[in-house]
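Bug report (template v2)

What were you trying to do?
Predict the complex of my protein with KG4.

What happened?
Run completed; filing so the output is reviewed.

Input:
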Amino acid sequence: MNITILGIESSCDDTSAAVVEDGILLSNRIANQKVHQEYGGVVPELASRAHQQNIIPVVETALREAGKTPDQMSAIAYTRGPGLMGALLVGSSFAKGLALAIRVPIIGINHLHAHILSVFLARKNETRSFPRFPFLCLLVSGGHTQIIIMKDHLEIEIIGQTIDDAAGEAFDKCAKVMGLPYPGGPMIDKLAREGDPHAFSFGKPVIRGLDFSFSGLKTSFLYFLRDRLKDDPDFVRKNLNNLSASIQEAIIDSLTRKLIRASKETGIREIAVAGGVSANSGLREAIHRIGAHWNWSVFIPEAQYATDNAAMIAIAGYHKYLRGDFSSQDITPAARFEQL
Ligand code: KG4
Ligand code: ZN
């Protein structure tokens, strides 16, 4: 019998549903929420309301595109946390209600775990190779920056993490300082393509071991701009491409240095990168270049599965299903959530 999982993601500002059957992705629908743009960041109340409006049409479309009906599902996987509580409640309540109606189990998923397992996504008739265990994963999102040893689909060990801001936050905050709209990461990525990454340099953090720090970089960028703007009020506009390329380079340099070190220390050369920032074209290029030098096997999800999506929730649900790792109907969402 087939194992068919409906995945639901609603942790932040994307409402998404996907269907995975026997490990193969059949559909993945995402409704982005435009309402936040004019506020320069995600407004939790508005996010919850938009999830309420989007969730039924998104789930219906994902099922239709997969050629499935609800009663063909084996289980419903949904994001239990971390994320915005009001946003998580919408996905979790919907998943529980539907699961009760069609009498299937629910599987609560850790959003970060799902980001990592996005490297196991494959569509029909697609030949893809997957990382072998143990592999290293650089997980870079809006809220997290970690280096993880994946020992198995369901067994992880965090060996390095940020002591302050996440890499995505560094992108977003630097973009905000330059007057770019939220989220700034994709904007910086685009502008950086026409810029010189060595045009400007900013203070490099010295952090022990495999940990990261990005708050110093943000401050250094802020002070640098403040000084230049004194002489030329038009400095940012005139240098947008070079500023974007230089700040992106500084973030990539921090990330890749520690990843190289982690690979050397652990002897692991199967390397994955996941999370929203792994959509960054400069980071992807750098990892492939460095990987070729150090003889790594590199695995990065397609950009559409790097940022928040339900395909990764469904594939994580599939692997938990195989282990019989189901959740009880009385578990609650968790804004801060560590367990897998
Ligand atoms: O994983 P994600 O979609 O949501 C979280 O779980 O946080 O990551 C969102 C983060 C944001 O900070 C966003 O600016 C960043 O990923 N991001 C990018 C790119 N696309 C998304 N950063 C740099 N370049 C990109 N192309
Ligand atoms: Zn995410």
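What did the reviewer find?
The two ends are 26 Å apart (CA to CA). Strands lie at 4-9, 14-21, 24-32, 75-81, 106-110, 135-140, 145-152, 155-161, 270-274, 297-299.
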